[in-house]
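Let us practice reading a record.
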Amino acid sequence: MDDETRNIIASAYKRTESILLQHRHMLEKIAEELLLKETLNYHDMKALVGSPPHGQKQLIEPLQFEAEINEQAGIAPGRSQQQSPPLPED
């Protein structure tokens, strides 16, 4: 079991290193821009390295995201996860 785990980790490390070396020029661009700006958003990244390889990112508003998550969790619209259910009336 330990050997199998070690092999999986070693393989993942080698693949990661290969990908980083393959795209080193992009990483250097990103690093240089981060020295100028503290954070980079999606549009900054797209300008630096191009569009994502798996298609455009779909940007959604935070309220839309929360509504979709609540719908998937079966929470009624207008309620949040932090709200307690209503108390039964006497």
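A brief commentary: Helices lie at 2-22, 24-36, 42-49, 62-72.
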